[in-house]
Design goal:
Elements (H helix, E strand, L loop, with lengths): L5 H15 L1 E6 L2 E6 L6 H19 L5 H9 L4
Antiparallel strand pairs: 1-2
Length: 78
């Protein structure tokens, strides 16, 4: 799903907020996205985001190649 404008990105973020409880937050003066732990789908989202972070950390540590990361993301349709 290519996002060609800030408006399209914001529309997607609104949907993620409604469906998954994703919410903008400020952390040390930086805007970040977090999610409401009480939202119905939050536990599954938490697991998925942690897996994504582990993959990104593995690439940074040289344990996984960028190509392996791309293959992992392709499993999710990315």
């Amino acid at each position: 799903m290519p996002l060609e404008s800030s408006r399209q990105t914001l529309e997607l973020l609104f949907r993620l907020n409604e469906e998954l409880g994703l919410t903008p937050m400020e952390f040390d003066g930086t805007m970040v996205l977090g999610f409401d732990a009480s939202a119905k789908k939050s536990p599954k989202l938490d697991i998925a985001i942690r897996a994504w972070k582990e993959m990104l950390d593995s690439v940074k540590a040289g344990e996984v190649t960028p190509e392996e990361l791309d293959a992992w993301k392709a499993e999710f349709g990315a």
